[in-house]
Design goal:
4-stranded mixed beta sheet; 2 helices; 6 strands
Length: 85
C-alpha cells in the first residue's frame, strides 16, 4: 500500500484514490456540499484555502491545501519508485 502526502503530514492511500481535482467548478462545489451533508467530507486543509479535492473510492471527499499538480506529482513519483523495486 502506497501513501501519498497531501500536506501537513496527512496521507491518503494511492490504491483508494479515484481523482484529484480543483475546487473551483460548480459541480465540485456541489460534491463537497453533499459530502459535508452526508458526513463523508475530510478537511485536511488546517484552515487554509482548499486547493485540491481528492475523491476516494469509499465515497469520501478529502480537501487539501496542496495544489492538485503537486499531489499528482507525488503520486507519480511514488508509482515510479514502486516500479523500481
Amino acid at each position: 500500500m502506497q501513501l501519498i502526502n497531501i500536506g501537513f503530514g496527512n496521507m491518503v492511500s494511492s490504491s483508494r484514490l479515484i481523482a484529484i481535482v480543483s475546487p473551483e467548478s460548480a459541480p465540485i462545489k456541489r460534491l463537497i456540499q453533499e459530502a459535508k451533508d452526508k458526513g463523508t467530507l475530510i478537511d485536511a486543509t488546517y484552515g487554509r484555502r482548499t486547493r485540491a479535492v481528492i475523491i476516494m473510492d469509499s465515497d469520501h471527499i478529502v480537501l487539501s491545501a496542496v495544489a492538485p499538480e503537486t499531489v499528482g506529482s507525488r503520486f507519480t513519483i511514488d508509482e515510479g519508485d514502486k516500479e523500481n523495486e
